[in-house]
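Table S5 (text form). Sequence records supplied for joint modeling of the two-component complex.
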Amino acid sequence: MPNDGSAQALRQALSASGFAFDVDAREGLALLRPADGVPIALDAAGRRRVQDLARQHGFTHAALELLPPAGGSCASSSP
Amino acid sequence: MTGVPSLPHPMASSEVAAAMRDKAARLHDWLRDAGSVLVGFSGGVDSAFLAAAAVETLGTARVLAVVGRSASYPNAQWETARRVAREFAFPLLEVDTHEVDDPQYAANPVNRCYFCKSELWHVLTPIARERGLAVVVDGTNADDLADYRPGTAAAKEQGVRSPLAEVGLTKADIRELSRERGLPTWSQPSSPCLSSRIPYHTAVTTERLRQVERAEQALRDLGVLGDFRVRHHGDLARVELSPGDLDRFMEVGAADTLRGALVGAGYARVAIDVRGFRSGSLNVLEGVVAAGA
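The corresponding structure-token record, covering 372 residues in total, follows.
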């Protein structure tokens, strides 16, 4: 079962792939939260990459938390 | 409809079609031999087809479709059940079931479905006896036999039969045969009970079920169709969407609309599963079944 260490390792792997997310491990679920607090859109390729990395770190599921708009700004992420 | 193939049965060859026809003929033989049936009817693809086949074979006087209503049974599904029964002239009876009041069910163990089905068949079996209906049947199909389904044991214990599975009819067969009959359920997504949105060992309560139902209705109101689920993780709603809706709601503006809808349904936090809809997702999350690729 993934733990805080897995979450930290996943956070680093995501960062290395260009995704700036904080990761909260909830059993097999990796809950991803944009590190800068700005809502992020993930395209299909980005979702596949995130899912693959999560699975490599022992998570069966990964979910992107939706944040309220911060002053209307947003970012798109597909490195 | 999203999540359901536009050509539901891959008729790769005439042999496949012939095999399906043979299974359908055997189903009619099975029902004829039964003489009269009470169908555990949910308004879903399988039980709607079974009820239609039973009425075709036996006529309305020897068939009764019974819906078990409870907090875990979605209102949208109930409406479908009523509509289908009306359009296809199934004799329909609605009864209340009380599985949520059973502490063994409410504790939400891995075999929760066993307690639900025990309650359902405990209510329906006496109705069959009182009305002189020979056999109680459910809509379990041949594909279901390979799934983790603890409710099946409860059905067996109470002598409930599964003719669709017994003659080998698969979900794809049933969708195709339903389409041919004009049953509106042919393209309907699978619709398990609302408790399936709550992780095992998190108590099932009427309040949580209502919250999930409000959330899923809010998504329907946004035009979300096909297979989707709102998974309940306490203050967090984790949404599993079909591929088309996943593309749509991963856009920032649409994502905020979705978030607002689910906050309105009572969730403080909302997340979109990056893989999207998976049947039995919580079974995978909790290691009840192995994760697929």
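Note: Confidence is low (pLDDT under 50) at residues 72-76 of chain A.
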